[in-house]
Structure prediction request, 151 residues.
Amino acid sequence: MFCRELVAQLRGEVEAIRALGAELAVVGNGTPAQAKAFASSHEVPFPLYVDPKLAAYQAAGLRRGVLDTLSPGSFGHALRALRTGARQGLTQGDPWQLGGAFVIAPGGRVAFRHVSRNAGDHADAARIRKALAKLGDRTAGAGGDGAERSG
Prediction:
């Protein structure tokens, strides 16, 4: 349900993200066939990559576990998702793997990082756009890592 909700939210952000000079991509943890079917049935207008071995999730320090996934906060997120029309379908991939959101600057620097604390804890789109806008405004050689963190 949360993946469906997130894709619907991101679909509405694609043009704003592109206007800021960036591209959007999503990584799921199912199989390539599952990703292809999901992208088709949910009209995903951006690349959807898969990592069934969870290597990218681990490298990014994303959380995984039953207690993280089914924490009290996830129930409130479920109600929010249901109100937006998202419904739970057949779970694909690792059901205990949580996600996150990252803005990766040229050169590989992480300019924004959100690690989901529980299922449905999505990054705020306005904060992602703000991080992208800062990258566009940043001059070469600015000090500090400039990373904004959430979660």
